[in-house]
Amino acid sequence: MVISLHIRAPGQGLHNITDKVEPLVKNAGFIDGLCTLFIKHTSASLIIQENADPSAKRDLEAWLNRLVAENDPLYTHTLEGSDDMPAHIKNVLTSTSISIPIQNGKLALGIWQGIYLWEHRYSGGKREIVIHIGH
Amino acid sequence: MVISLHIRAPGQGLHNITDKVEPLVKNAGFIDGLCTLFIKHTSASLIIQENADPSAKRDLEAWLNRLVAENDPLYTHTLEGSDDMPAHIKNVLTSTSISIPIQNGKLALGIWQGIYLWEHRYSGGKREIVIHIGH
Amino acid sequence: MVISLHIRAPGQGLHNITDKVEPLVKNAGFIDGLCTLFIKHTSASLIIQENADPSAKRDLEAWLNRLVAENDPLYTHTLEGSDDMPAHIKNVLTSTSISIPIQNGKLALGIWQGIYLWEHRYSGGKREIVIHIGH
Questions:
Q1: Where are the beta strands (DSSP E) in chain C?
Q2: What is the SS3 assignment for C105?
Q3: pLDDT tens digit string along C68-83?
Q4: Which helix (H) or strand (E) element contains residue A117?
């Protein structure tokens, strides 16, 4: 089963999408299986991160923004805006696809884990995540 | 088939778990297939790395420890210890899930590849890795 | 279905392999499914990146080469050449496996996405990518 999920993040940063994925897994009705998420973009990515303390999320965003700075004199790919080349690099340092087993009919996420869309552009528009659910 | 593997790493660093995963694949009895590992934590991760020269493992650990330093003045998420925020960042820079094809009844690992649990906390306790084996 | 793909990259850097993977998916004849690529090496990796503007590719390579420098005094694993330890680190910061859903008989890649083999050695030789295609 392959389903497309369309999400428009309100801006740059981490956006929890766990509650958009869980119903798809429930509806699939598999007791055991594998759920794979794939993002069809090179300037936004997918990660699993802590869903509890918002300070962890903020620190993670700030740390990566410092590592992959805008306006780095190294960049030659600058026509699409100062946030574009950093977005491609951040995409590569994080993940384009994530696979989560389905156990007892549910995603086998740890108690503190959430699934996040990481929008790396200031205004990335609508993003498409393709989800495969299989046995 | 979905199986949970529980591992307590003796401390921070890379721990080879290949010999804990291989028997599960053998027992599954699939000639061809896919084995996916998922770690249910946000302060430990999974990687595939060289299993031969221990100096490569040590350099990798030292390099990442320097890149993602403890006590960075940027951190606000500090209540859980100086190793906690670096652990979340290291988790995101490495992998939460890895998929390895099964070929001729065995994991299709390269001759120098091992599967590693990377414990990012000094004392992370028991970690759970959920493993899906499918056709 | 599990297939091995052998590729010899002409040198260090990103090499687009999308047109080597697409025919395998087409031949498999699955309407819906999942295609997983796994690279059997620890000094080369797989990423999904922009296939349009070559400047994005060049900047990405230059940025990672600066972050993971050769001849870092931290390295003790130096016997295999100055490009070897950086190659292992770059491998860990990028991906060893990537899973792409198959939708309507094709890889569900975004319009700007290509699949790349990232050779991290100057002369890596022939690389083997194992590809699993399943329902």
A1: 2-8, 13-16, 33-39, 44-50, 97-103, 106-107, 113-119, 126-134
A2: coil
A3: 999 999 999 999 999 9
A4: strand A113-119
Report field, pTM of the whole predicted structure over 0.90: yes
Tell me the nearest-neighbour CA distance from C135 into chain B, angstroms: 8
B33·C132 Cβ contact <8 A? yes
- Coil, helix or strand for C32? coil
pLDDT in tens, B119-128: 999 999 999 9
Spatial strand order in the sheet of A113-119: A13-16, A113-119, A44-50
What is the rounded CA–CA span in Å between residue B45 and residue B7? Answer: 12
Query: Are the Cβ atoms of C63 and A72 closer than 8 angstroms?
Result: yes
Residue C117: count other Cβ atoms within 10 Å of its Cβ: 24
Residue B98, strand partner residues: B37
- How far away is chain B from the Cα of A12, in angstroms, using its nearest Cα? 17
> Measuring CA to CA, which residue among C25, C106, C2 is closest to residue B35?
C2
Write out chain A residues lying below 8 Å of C109, CB-based: 40
The residues, any chain, with a CB within 8 Å of residue A27's CB and separated by 6 or more, are: none
Amino acid, res. A81: G
ipTM of predicted complex: 0.97
Taking the CA of residue B94 and the nearest CA in chain A, the distance in Å comes to 8
**Which of C77, C94, C128 to probe by mutation at the B interface, max B CB count within 10 Å?**
C77
